[in-house]
C-alpha cells in the first residue's frame, strides 16, 4: 500500500468488519447476521472467481452459476453415497469443476462477443437440466445434505463461527491467489488478450491456450464456492445453477467494479445486503432493485470501486 | 544463390470479387531493406497480413529461411523471427509503454505459464523493454499509459514492440503514416540504424524516404507486382511512372 | 400416426411462436446491437394485458388487439425512457441493465396482478377441433396460432425485403454507419424497430396465454430459447431466426412427447420420467453448442463486416 486512497480505506474497513463480525454476532446474540454473512462471503468468492475471467480476462461468461451447482452436487452426491469426508468431497468438487470448465471453455472459446455470452449460458442451462434429470439425487426438488463435510475433527463445519471463518479464509485465499496471478506473467498475457488480441498474437502469444487455462482456474475457484454453499444450506438443487443466478453473479462483479481485486466482494456485500434490506421494508423489493441496476449501469461507471476512485480524485 | 530470408511464391488472396493479392512473388535477401510501394488499395497491407499470418492466402506459399510458414498461425511465425508493425496502431491501450514492450520480450523469454511471481519485477524483461524504448527515443515515457501517448509516440512504440521480440525480419506497414515532418525525419534516421541489424520489409508512401532507405523496391498495383528492382531502375521504369510515380495525387494521399 | 401428426403440428406451432419472439430480438440485436434480456418480459406483459383486457371487454379478440397495442406502446415508452441510453454501450452493460428490468417487470406484475397466475379462457368457436386430414382433428386455436404466425412471418419478410423501411432495416443490420450517412432519422427508426419487436413479443405472449397459465417468470425460460434461436440462426438474420425457431420448436415438442417412451425402454419408469424432460430440454442447448462449435457465428450470419 503506497498511498492512502478512499477505496483502500473502504476495503480495509470492510475486511475488518468481516473479520470481527462473529464477535459482534456473539455479543449481541444476533445469529441471523452470521448466517447472512456466511452466504454473502460464499457468493463473494463465486463473484471473485467470475471477475478473474470477466474483469481481468475479458471473457463474459453468463454461465458461472454452473460451478456452484457442480461443486455443490459433488458434496451432496458423495454425502448421499456415504462418503462424508471433506478431504474427498472438496477435491472432487474442485476437480469436477475444473474438468467441466476445461470442456466448456475449449468449446466456448471458439466464439467471441455475444456468442460467447450465449454459449456459456447454454452450457450452464444444460448442466441445470442434467441436474433436474438426476432422479437418484432428487431431480428437480434437489438433494438434502444431511451431514456437513467432515474434516477429521480439524474444523467443525456445523459450528457457525468455525464455518464462517473457513469461508472467509477461502475467500481471502482466493483473492490472494488472484492478486498473484494478475501480476504474474500469465496474468499479464491474459489481460493483454482482453485489451488487444490481435496485438498479442502478433507478438507471439497463442491466445486460446492462455484464455482456456484462465477459464479453468476461475471455474475451479467457483467450484469451491459451490462446495461451501452446499454445506451452508445443507441442500443443493438445480436452482443454484439457474441462469438468473449467473446473472446475479455478474451483477455483483459489475456493481463492485470489474477488474479490481476487492470489487466483487464489495459488490456481493452491497447487492445481497440491499436485497435483504429492501425485502424487509417492502415485499416488492425488486421494484426498487431493478431500476437501481439500470441507474448503476447508466451512471455508475466502474462500479463501486470506480466511484470510490473518483471520490479520491474529486 | 543463397536461400533468401523470405520467399513469397504466387500468393493469391481475394475479397469477394476483388483480387487483393494477385500472384505475388517476392524475395527478400538477408540484410536487405525491401520497400513495397503502390497506390492506396493496391494490396500492401493485405500482403503484409498474409506474411504475418493474420490473413490466410487462397493459394501460393510463404517461406522464411527455407521453412514453409504458409499455414502457421501468427504466434508461431513470431517465434520464428517475424515481427510486424500495424498501419493502424494496434497496442494495448490500457497498459504502459513499458508493459507493451516487455510483453513482447516476455513472449520470447521462456514460458508465460508462470502464475505466481510478479512479472513486472523480472529484471531481464524490464531491461529489454527499456532498451527497445530507448532505441526509439521513448525511454522517458516508459511508465505512461499508451492511451495517454500522442499518435507519433504510439507509432514509435509499435516499432519498439516489434524490436523487443528480436526479429530476423521486420515488417513495417507505413511506420510514418500521420507523422509530422520532424517525427518522420526521426523515423528515417532510426530505420537507417535498424537496417544494419535486421532485414526489413517496408511499406511506405513517403517517396523520398523510400528511395533513401531501400536496397530494393517492389511496386504493387491492383494486387500485382508490376516492377521490382533497385531504386534507380524503379525510378527509370516507364510502367511505374505511368501507373504510379507520375501521379502525385496518389503519392501524397495517405490512407 | 395420429399422435405423430398432432405433435408435429404442436412443434410447428411452438416453433412459430418462438419465431415471433426471436424476430423482435434479432432485429433489435442486429440493428441497435442491443442485448435485451427484458424481451421476455414484454412477452409476459402481452399475456397479462390480454388476460386483463379480455376480462374487461368480455371479448377474446378485442382483448388481444388491445394487448397488442399496449405492448407496442410499452415497448416504445421503454425504449425512449431507458434502453435508448444503452445504445453504443458494452454488451455487458446491456445484460446488467435489462436484467434489472426483468426484476422490475416481474415485481410490478406481482404488485398489480398478484402472485397467482391468470387464465385467459378461449371463446367457444376457438375450442372446436377442426378436421385437417381424414380422421385427424386438430384444435382450432392452435391452428389459428399457426396461421396468424405464418401471416406475420410473411408480412415481416415482405416488409423487410420489399419496403423502404425494410431496406433501411437491412442496411442498419449490416452497416450501422451507412444508415446515418443516408440522413435517416435514426432515433425514430430505432424506436419504431423496438416497438415492433415489443409488439411481436406481446403477440407471442398473448397467443400463448390460453395454452399455458399466465404467470410471473413465464418470459424467462422462453427468452433463453429465443436467444438460443437467434444465436443458432445468426444474429440479425430474420431468415436464420425463422428456420432455427421451427427447428427448436420441433425438437422441444417432439422430445417431450416421445423421449419418455424411448427412455422407458432402457431405464426404469421413475428414472425415465425424471430424465426425459431434462434430456429434451438439454437437446436444444446441445444443438446450439454444436452449431456454435462448427459455425461460431451461427448458420446465417447477417453482419458480414
Ligand atoms: N478485410 C477486407 N475485406 C474486404 N476487402 C478488403 C479487406 N481488406 C482489404 N480489402 C480490399 O483489398 C484491397 C487492398 O487493400 P489494402 O491491402 O488495405 O491496400 P493498401 O494497404 O495497399 O492500401 C482494397 O481494395 C481493399 O478494399
Ligand atoms: Mg495499407
Walkthrough of the structure:
The complex is a heterotrimer of chains A (314), B (255) and C (305). Chain A has one domain (18-243). Chain A is 74% helix and 1% strand. Chain A contains 13 helices and two strands. A two-stranded antiparallel sheet of chain A has the order 1-2. By secondary structure, chain B is an alpha/beta fold. Chain B has two domains: 1-81 and 167-255, Rossmann fold (3-Layer(aba) Sandwich), CATH 3.40.50.300; 91-166, no CATH class. In chain B, 36% of the residues lie in helices and 24% in strands. Chain B contains ten helices and ten strands. In chain B, the strands form two sheets. Chain B has a six-stranded mixed beta sheet, with helices on both faces. Chain B has a four-stranded antiparallel beta sheet with strand order 2-1-4-5, covered by helices on one side. In chain B, β4 (59-64) and β5 form a beta hairpin. The longest helix of chain B has 14 residues, at 151-164. The radius of gyration of chain B is 18 Å and the shape is globular. The relative contact order of chain B is 0.18. Chain C has one domain. Chain C has helices at residues 2-32, 39-57, 60-81, 91-113, 140-162, 164-174, 176-181, 186-208, 218-233, 238-264, 269-294; strands at residues 129-133, 136-139. A two-stranded antiparallel ribbon of chain C has the order 1-2. In chain C, α1 runs parallel beside α5 (140-162), α1 (2-32) packs across α6 (164-174) and α2 packs across α9 (218-233). The radius of gyration of chain C is 20 Å and the shape is globular. The N and C termini of chain C lie far apart (47 Å). The mean pLDDT of chain C is 86. Chains in contact: A-B, A-C. At the A-C interface, α5, α10 and α12 of A face α4, α9 and α11 of C. Magnesium ion is lined by residues 44-45, 87 of chain B. The site of adenosine-5'-diphosphate (ADP) has 12 residues of chain B, from β2 and α1.
Keywords summarizing the entry:
heterotrimer, B: 255 residues, 2 domains, 4-stranded antiparallel sheet, 36% helix, 24% strand, disordered C terminus, C: 305 residues, globular, binds adenosine-5'-diphosphate, binds magnesium ion
Strand segment tally of chain B: 10
Q: Into which percent range does the helicity of residues of chain B fall?
A: 25-40%
Helix share, percent of chain A: over 70%
State the low-pLDDT regions of chain B, or none: 248-255
Query: How many DSSP H or I helices of chain B?
Result: 10
Number of strands of chain A: 2
Taken from the alpha-carbon principal axes, the silhouette of chain A is globular
CATH class of the largest domain in chain B: Alpha Beta
Walk across the major sheet of chain A and give the strand order.
Answer: 1-2
Structural domain count of chain B: 2
- C-alpha Rg of chain B (nearest Å): 18 Å
Major sheet attributes of chain A: 2 strands, antiparallel
SSE string of chain A, helices as H and strands as E: HHHHHEHHHHEHHHH
Mean pLDDT of chain A, rounded to whole units?
Answer: 92
Question: Structural class per helix/strand content of chain A?
Answer: mainly alpha
Oligomer: heterotrimer
Low-confidence stretches of chain A: none
Gap between N and C termini of chain B, in Å?
Answer: 37 Å
Ligands bound, unique: adenosine-5'-diphosphate, magnesium ion
Query: In what range is the share of β-strand residues of chain B?
Result: 15-25%
The SSE order of chain B reads EEEHEEHEHHHEHEHEEHHH
Amino acid at each position: 500500500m503506497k498511498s492512502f486512497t478512499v477505496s483502500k480505506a473502504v476495503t480495509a474497513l470492510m475486511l475488518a468488519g468481516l473479520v470481527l463480525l462473529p464477535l459482534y454476532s456473539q455479543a449481541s446474540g444476533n445469529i441471523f447476521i452470521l448466517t447472512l454473512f456466511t452466504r454473502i462471503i460464499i457468493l463473494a468468492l463465486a463473484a471473485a472467481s467470475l471477475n478473474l475471467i470477466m474483469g481481468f480476462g475479458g471473457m463474459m461468461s453468463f454461465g458461472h452459476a454452473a460451478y456452484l451447482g457442480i461443486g455443490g452436487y459433488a458434496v451432496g452426491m458423495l454425502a448421499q453415497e456415504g462418503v462424508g469426508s471433506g478431504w474427498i468431497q472438496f477435491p472432487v468438487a474442485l476437480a469436477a469443476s475444473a474438468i467441466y470448465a476445461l470442456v466448456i471453455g475449449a468449446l466456448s472459446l471458439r466464439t467471441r462477443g455475444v456468442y460467447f455470452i450465449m454459449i456459456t449460458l447454454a452450457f450452464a442451462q444444460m448442466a441445470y437440466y442434467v441436474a433436474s434429470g438426476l432422479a437418484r439425487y432428487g431431480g428437480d426438488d434437489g438433494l438434502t445434505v444431511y451431514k456437513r463435510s467432515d474434516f477429521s475433527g480439524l474444523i467443525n463445519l456445523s459450528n457457525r463461527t468455525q464455518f464462517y471463518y473457513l469461508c472467509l479464509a477461502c475467500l481471502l485465499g482466493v483473492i490472494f491467489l488472484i492478486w498473484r496471478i494478475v501480476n504474474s506473467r500469465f496474468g499479464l498475457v491474459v489481460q493483454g488478450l482482453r485489451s488487444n488480441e490481435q496485438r498479442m498474437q502478433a507478438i507471439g502469444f497463442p491466445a486460446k491456450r492462455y484464455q482456456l487455462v484462465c477459464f479453468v482456474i476461475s471455474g475451479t475457484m467457483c467450484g469451491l464456492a459451490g462446495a461451501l454453499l452446499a454445506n451452508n444450506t445443507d441442500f443443493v438443487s438445480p436452482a443454484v445453477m439457474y441462469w438468473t443466478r449467473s446473472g446475479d453473479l455478474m451483477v455483483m462483479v459489475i456493481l463492485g467494479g470489474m477488474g479490481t481485486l476487492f470489487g466483487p466482494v464489495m459488490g456481493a456485500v452491497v447487492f445481497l445486503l440491499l436485497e435483504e434490506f429492501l425485502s424487509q421494508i417492502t415485499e416488492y423489493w425488486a421494484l426498487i432493485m431493478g431500476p437501481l441496476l439500470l441507474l448503476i449501469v447508466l451512471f455508475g461507471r466502474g462500479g463501486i470501486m470506480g466511484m470510490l476512485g473518483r471520490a479520491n480524485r474529486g | 544463390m543463397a536461400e533468401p530470408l523470405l520467399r513469397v511464391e504466387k500468393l493469391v488472396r481475394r475479397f469477394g470479387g476483388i483480387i487483393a493479392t494477385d500472384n505475388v512473388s517476392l524475395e527478400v535477401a538477408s540484410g536487405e531493406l525491401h520497400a513495397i510501394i503502390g497506390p492506396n488499395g493496391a494490396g500492401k497491407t493485405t500482403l503484409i497480413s498474409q506474411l504475418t499470418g493474420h490473413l490466410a492466402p487462397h493459394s501460393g506459399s510463404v517461406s522464411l529461411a527455407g521453412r514453409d510458414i504458409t499455414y502457421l498461425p501468427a504466434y508461431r511465425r513470431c517465434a520464428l523471427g517475424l515481427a510486424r508493425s500495424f498501419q493502424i496502431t494496434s497496442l494495448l491501450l490500457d497498459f504502459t509503454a513499458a508493459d507493451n514492450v516487455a510483453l513482447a520480450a516476455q513472449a520470447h523469454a521462456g514460458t508465460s505459464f508462470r502464475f505466481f511471481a510478479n512479472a513486472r519485477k523480472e529484471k531481464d524483461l524490464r531491461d529489454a523493454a527499456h532498451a527497445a524504448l530507448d532505441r526509439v527515443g521513448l525511454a522517458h515515457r516508459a511508465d505512461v499509459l499508451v492511451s495517454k501517448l500522442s499518435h507519433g509516440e504510439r507509432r514509435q512504440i509499435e516499432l519498439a514492440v516489434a524490436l523487443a521480440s528480436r526479429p530476423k525480419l521486420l515488417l513495417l506497414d507505413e511506420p510514418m503514416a500521420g507523422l509530422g515532418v520532424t517525427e518522420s525525419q526521426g523515423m528515417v534516421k532510426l530505420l537507417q540504424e535498424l537496417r544494419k541489424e535486421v532485414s526489413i520489409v517496408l511499406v511506405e508512401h513517403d517517396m523520398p524516404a523510400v528511395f533513401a532507405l531501400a536496397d530494393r523496391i517492389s511496386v504493387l498495383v491492383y494486387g500485382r507486382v508490376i516492377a521490382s528492382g533497385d531504386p534507380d531502375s524503379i525510378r527509370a521504369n516507364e510502367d511505374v511512372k505511368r501507373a504510379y510515380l507520375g501521379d502525385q495525387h496518389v503519392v501524397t494521399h495517405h490512407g | 400416426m395420429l399422435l405423430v401428426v398432432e405433435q408435429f403440428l404442436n412443434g410447428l406451432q411452438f416453433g412459430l411462436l418462438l419465431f415471433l419472439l426471436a424476430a423482435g430480438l434479432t432485429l433489435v440485436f442486429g440493428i441497435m446491437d442491443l442485448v435485451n434480456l427484458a424481451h421476455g418480459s414484454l412477452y409476459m406483459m402481452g399475456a397479462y394485458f390480454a388476460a386483463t383486457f379480455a376480462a374487461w371487454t368480455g371479448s377474446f379478440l378485442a382483448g388481444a388487439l388491445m394487448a397488442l397495442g399496449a405492448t407496442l406502446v410499452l415497448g416504445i415508452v421503454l425504449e425512449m425512457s431507458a434502453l435508448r441510453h444503452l445504445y453504443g454501450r458494452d454488451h455487458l452493460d446491456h445484460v446488467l441493465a435489462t436484467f434489472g428490468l426483468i426484476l422490475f417487470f416481474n415485481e410490478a406484475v406481482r404488485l398489480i396482478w398478484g402472485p397467482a397466475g391468470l387464465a385467459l379462457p378461449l371463446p367457444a368457436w376457438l375450442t372446436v377441433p377442426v378436421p385437417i386430414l381424414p380422421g385427424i382433428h386438430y384444435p382450432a386455436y392452435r391452428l389459428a396460432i399457426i396461421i396468424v404466425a405464418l401471416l406475420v412471418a410473411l408480412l415481416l419478410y415482405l416488409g423487410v425485403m420489399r419496403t423502404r423501411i425494410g431496406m433501411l432495416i437491412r442496411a442498419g443490420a449490416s452497416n450501422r454507419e451507412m444508415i446515418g450517412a443516408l440522413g435517416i432519422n435514426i432515433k425514430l427508426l430505432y424506436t419504431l424497430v423496438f416497438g415492433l419487436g415489443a409488439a411481436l413479443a406481446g403477440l407471442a405472449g398473448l397467443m400463448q396465454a390460453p395454452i399455458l397459465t399466465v404467470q410471473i417468470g413465464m418470459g424467462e425460460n422462453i427468452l433463453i430459447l429465443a436467444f438460443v434461436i437467434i444465436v443458432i440462426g445468426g444474429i440479425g438474420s430474420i431468415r436464420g431466426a425463422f428456420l432455427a425457431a421451427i427447428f427448436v420448436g420441433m425438437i422441444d415438442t417432439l422430445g417431450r412427447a416421445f423421449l419418455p417412451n424411448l427412455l422407458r425402454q432402457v431405464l426404469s419408469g421413475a428414472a425415465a420420467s425424471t430424465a426425459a424432460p431434462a434430456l429434451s430440454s438439454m437437446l436444444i442447448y446441445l444443438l446450439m453448442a454444436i452449431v456454435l462449435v462448427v459455425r461460431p457465428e451461427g448458420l446465417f450470419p447477417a453482419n458480414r463486416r
